[in-house]
Amino acid sequence: MLRGRLWISPCGDAHDLQCVARTKKGTRCRNPIEYGQMLGFHAFRLGDAGYVEAYGSLGQGDAVDADRWIAQHCLVHDAPDVIDCGPAELRRFDIVRDAAHIKAHVRTLPTARCR
User: Fold this and answer.
1) Rounded CA gap, 105 and 43, in Å?
2) 45 strand-pairing partners
3) Tell me: the pLDDT tens digits for 39-83?
4) Is the pLDDT at 112 greater than 80, yes or no?
5) What's the pLDDT tens digit per position in 81-106?
6) Minimal CA–CA distance to 6: which of 61, 46, 37?
7) Would strands 7-8 and 51-56 be described as parallel, antiparallel, or unpaired?
8) CB 19 within 8 A of CB 33
9) What burial letters (b/e) apply to 61-83, b meaning 16+ CB within 10 Å?
10) Alpha-carbon distance 21 to 92, whole Å?
11) In angstroms, rounded to a whole number, what is the distance separating the alpha carbons of residues 112 and 114?
């Protein structure tokens, strides 16, 4: 969830996305977009269609730099003059094309009891 919109990664987990910038040697950068987990895992309601579970922000503001994520650049290549080795793989979520990711109900996660 970036800028209030759902995006989907072809590799499944957004944290596995690799930077698409071209290095000085002319090859694709091998850095991940982000080190660690920057966004929480939440269930987002898609109207009557159901729910989709995704990493994202529940508030209005993004917890990460949305422009950098959408461009699929690592922190090293976060600059306007960067040339990409290929197109970004992250794409907008489509309710029809990505229907397999939609669940009828929110999965209930076990919670720990505090004493």
Assistant:
1) 9
2) 51
3) 677 788 888 888 888 877 665 555 568 888 889 999 999 998 999
4) no
5) 999 999 998 889 888 888 888 888 77
6) 46
7) unpaired
8) yes
9) ebeebbebbbbbbbeebeeeebe
10) 20
11) 6
Q: Give CA angle at 78 (74, 81), nearest 5°.
A: 130
Amino acid at 38: M
Percent of the chain that is helix, strand, coil (3-state, to 5)? 15, 20, 65
* DSSP one-letter string for 37-74: --SEEEEEE-GGG-EEEEEE-SSSS-SS-HHHHHHT--
User: pTM score, two decimals?
Assistant: 0.73
Task: Decide: 39 and 56 in contact? Cβ < 8 Å.
Answer: yes
> What is the residue whose two structure tokens read 């094309």?
97
- For residue 101, what are its two tokens? 């990711």
Q: Which one-letter amino acid corresponds to residue 107? A: R
